[in-house]
Each structure stands twice: as structure tokens, then as C-alpha cells.
Inverse folding.
């Protein structure tokens, strides 16, 4: 029997004062994959994995998967990659659908990671500039939008969601167990249908252009039974909600 687990490391939205931004730790067959990587990722790991048998840090993660490039989902990538590069002396294994992550370096990371200036009085103009590229920090594997992609023990299918920027929902299988994750999205009946086969569905809910809680409440019982909510607003309390709210640090075996 496979043992496929998920630990919500952050469950909040971009404006939360209660929670870390939404991100998930998946583990199967001794392999750990981080889904989205907000800042401050090492503090998030430390606090949200403190109650696990073995706390997790950057060096324990085999793969980082990004669903999209909003800061509350990817602002920790720079710190994660610098820690890997300078402290662990290794590259980050990064995966994602090209449509969702293609601007990661040029429009997000390059500003802080591309050029390193070191003051050197001997050098011309007093500084030495070292230029680094995406490939110095990352080993990247694209996720297909048309067929499942194998990443270690995980088999990953992607589907574009209804969001401000290109974003991918996920279905992730380990043997016969499947986790579905909506990522950020407006309510989308087609997405619910796509996620329906999963054994556990993690769905976002929030205000504005996100998915209203009431829409999820209107879904059939057999879907609601396996649904857990993430990216919820600070004012949501479990006692007042029928659908389950994910809790930071609470490991769930799928
Ligand atoms: Zn977003």
C-alpha cells in the first residue's frame, strides 16, 4: 500500500495576519515535494513541520512545484534558491507548467539574483560584477498540460484555472491514490469535474475573484466529503463552517 501524505504549511491568503500563505508539503516513498513557495519559507518549514516526527527544511525538499507567479505563492523561491546555492551547494529541482512559470526568472527573480556586485578596489571602477542565470540555481523540468508528467513517485496532471495570471490546478497520483488541488481559481464547474476523481480535493476559497464558499457548499455531498479548504480568509472559523478547513502542520494521509 502506498503512503502518500500532505501537510499544509500555509493555509492563508495574500493578506492574512493569521496564517502563512498557501503552500503544501507532499511526501511519498521517501520523496518530498513542495507545492508553492512563499516567503519566509524556512520559517514556514520550521513552524509548520515542528510537530512532525522529523521537522523539514530546504535541504529535505526534492522538488519545488509552482502553480503560478503571484507573490503569495512564489515569493520564497529567491530565498530557497540562495540557501540551496550558497549553503547546501546544490541546485533546486523546479517543476511547473511553462505557461505558468515562464516569467519566473526574467520578470521576478532576475532583479535580485542575476547580478552580484562585490566592491574590489583593485578592479576597474571599484566593483566586480558576477552574472548568474536561471540555470546556475535551478534544474527545471516542465509539466505537460496535455498528459500526466512523472516526477519521482508522483504523476502530475495540470489544468489551467480561471485566475488573473496563468495558473495550474493539479492532480497528483502516487500509485492508486490521487490528490486534487484547485490552486487559485474562480469557481469553475469544469475544474470541479476534473478534480472529482481525486481521493482528496484541496480547494481554495476566498472573496473577490476567488471561489465563494457558498458555491462549494452547493456541490454534491460525495465531493464535499473529500474536500478541504485552503487560501481562506482570516475570519473563517471551523466551528462556523461545514466544509473542513486545512490546518497548518496537520498531516493528512491520502
Ligand atoms: Zn494567485
Amino acid at each position: 500500500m502506498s503512503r502518500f501524505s500532505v501537510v499544509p504549511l500555509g493555509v492563508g491568503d495574500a493578506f492574512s495576519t493569521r496564517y502563512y500563505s498557501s503552500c503544501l508539503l507532499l511526501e511519498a516513498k521517501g520523496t518530498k515535494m513542495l507545492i508553492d513557495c512563499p516567503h519566509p519559507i524556512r520559517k514556514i518549514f520550521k513552524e509548520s513541520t515542528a510537530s512532525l516526527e522529523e521537522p523539514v527544511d530546504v535541504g529535505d525538499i526534492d522538488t519545488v512545484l509552482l502553480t503560478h507567479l503571484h507573490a503569495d505563492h512564489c515569493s520564497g523561491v529567491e530565498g530557497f534558491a540562495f540557501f540551496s546555492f550558497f549553503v547546501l551547494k546544490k541546485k533546486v529541482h523546479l517543476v511547473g507548467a511553462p505557461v505558468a512559470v515562464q516569467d519566473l526568472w526574467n520578470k521576478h527573480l532576475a532583479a535580485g539574483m542575476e547580478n552580484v556586485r562585490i566592491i574590489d578596489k583593485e578592479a576597474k571602477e571599484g566593483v566586480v560584477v558576477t552574472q548568474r542565470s536561471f540555470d546556475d540555481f535551478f534544474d527545471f523540468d516542465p509539466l505537460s498540460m496535455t498528459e500526466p508528467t512523472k516526477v519521482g513517485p508522483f504523476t502530475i496532471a495540470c489544468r489551467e484555472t480561471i485566475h488573473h495570471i496563468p495558473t495550474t490546478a493539479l492532480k497528483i497520483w502516487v500509485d492508486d491514490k490521487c490528490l486534487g488541488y484547485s490552486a487559485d481559481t474562480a469557481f469553475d464547474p469544469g475544474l470541479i469535474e476534473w478534480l472529482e476523481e481525486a481521493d482528496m480535493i484541496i480547494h481554495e476559497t476566498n472573496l473577490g475573484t476567488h471561489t465563494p464558499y457558498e458555491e462549494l457548499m452547493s456541490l454534491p455531498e460525495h465531493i464535499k466529503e473529500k474536500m478541504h479548504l485552503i487560501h481562506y480568509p482570516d475570519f473563517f472559523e471551523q466551528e462556523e463552517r461545514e466544509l473542513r478547513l486545512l490546518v497548518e502542520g496537520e498531516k493528512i494521509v491520502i
Q: What stands out?
A: The first helix runs from residue 41 to 48. DSSP finds nine helices and 16 strands in the chain.
